[in-house]
Amino acid sequence: MRKKQSIVQLNNEFIQNENQRLRFEEEEISKRHRFIGFIMVIIVFLFILPTYNLMSSYVDLQEKKENVVQLKKDVEELTEQMKAKKALAEQLKNEEFILKYARAKYYYIRDGEVVYSTPELLPK
């Protein structure tokens, strides 16, 4: 068996007005929460876009730093090669060196000579 409720709610004008006022306040609070949520979403987007741009710039900067390091190594290698070629060009001004170089590198021989090649003695 069900227990009978002993509380009776009055349904007069005051109660109806209070219920209507509470519904209106709840609706206003709901609208305010939606507005604040919308503002928060916009703020999140405003922080995400610059962060993405900052990260992509950082990645580009790191790639460029690696590229600079590689280019510096290339410059050092080319400088060494250029020094070696200049040294060879200076040595090629000496006629005696030219004869040794031609004999060693291109196996140039005079009549009656035999050339034995030793790779570690070849000028580079």
UniProtKB/TrEMBL annotation:
The chain crosses the membrane at residues 35-55. It holds the Pfam family DivIC. GO terms for biological process: cell division. The keyword Transmembrane helix applies. The keyword Cytoplasm does not apply. Residues 58-95 form a coiled coil. It comes from the Bacteria. Keywords: Coiled coil, Membrane, Transmembrane, Transmembrane helix. InterPro entries: DivIC, FtsL/DivIC. This is Septum formation initiator family protein. It comes from Streptococcus hillyeri.
